[in-house]
Amino acid sequence: MTNKLFNLTIIPLLIITQRSPLDALIFNQPPPPPDKDTPGQQSDSGTRGPCDAQPSETDNELVAFVPTIEKTGNSLPETHVWGLTQSQHPTFWFYLPATATSAQVAQFSLENEADYQSHFQFNLPQTPGIISLTLPTNEPPLEPGQWYYWSLKLYCQTQPSTPNFFVDGWIQRVQNETPLNNDTPQDKVVIYAQNGLWFDTITELANLHRQTPQETETAWADLLEFIGWESLTEIPILPCCTLEKQ
Q1: The whole model's pTM is what?
Q2: What is the dihedral of CA 32, 134, 86, 30, to 10 degrees?
């Protein structure tokens, strides 16, 4: 009987890393409509007297996580703060600095150009971080095509007059034309970003980032870089806050 010798070829093990849909996240910001005046303020350092601020305190800017676009209005440059959503009750995101954590009153307002106007209060956390404010479901849903003006005001006094911190901007709801029921959260982020839906993009990604920070670290940094605040990438997302109608 003849012995047969078999040459065994060692096949190297290939480890294939599956790419995430978020690896190349690009947000497509649509231009603001030419006939709409949407100036706003994305950040505020509380120059009117931050609450209990120490002279050495540098963490002092309240930031609205909303894109800005520079436009020229009346021959002067203007900062326009606005974004789109397809949500009936969208979520707004902000960075709360250390100098604002001791504010006595926190007020969020939303109004449209017709007959809707609502004012809310909420309790601030005791530590700085990223907070979210979701329009309550018992509020009228945002109407497609209408523009809504929002503002966040923080007051150091219990009887407020002039806010010590103030940011504001605009939001518009567009009609949902793409069903997303069968898409993964990662796919939803990409679809929202491709369609310029800022508030939906950041909300979906922030929720993912809370659950899996390592897997979403790059995408989260890219999104904050788009609005000019990549320096806040490592800031924790706090379990806050709940709006209460005034």
Answers
A1: 0.88
A2: 20
Of 57, 55, 60, the closest CA to residue 45 belongs to: 60
Task: Round to whole Å and give the CA distance between 221 and 219.
Answer: 5
**Of 74, 77, 73, 79, residue with least CA distance to 43:** 79
pLDDT in tens, 20-72: 778 878 999 988 777 777 789 999 988 666 777 665 566 789 999 999 988 76
Give the CA angle between residues 57, 61, 67 to the nearest 5°: 160
Distance CA 21, CA 222 (A): 14
Contact 62, 153 (CB under 8 A): no
SS3 content of the chain, % helix, strand, coil (to 5): 20, 30, 55
- The C-alpha atoms of residue 42 and residue 169 are separated, in whole angstroms, by 7
Ranges of residues in the chain with a pLDDT under 50 are 1-11, 13-17
What's the chain's length in residues? Answer: 246
State phi, psi for 144 to the nearest 5 degrees: -60, 135
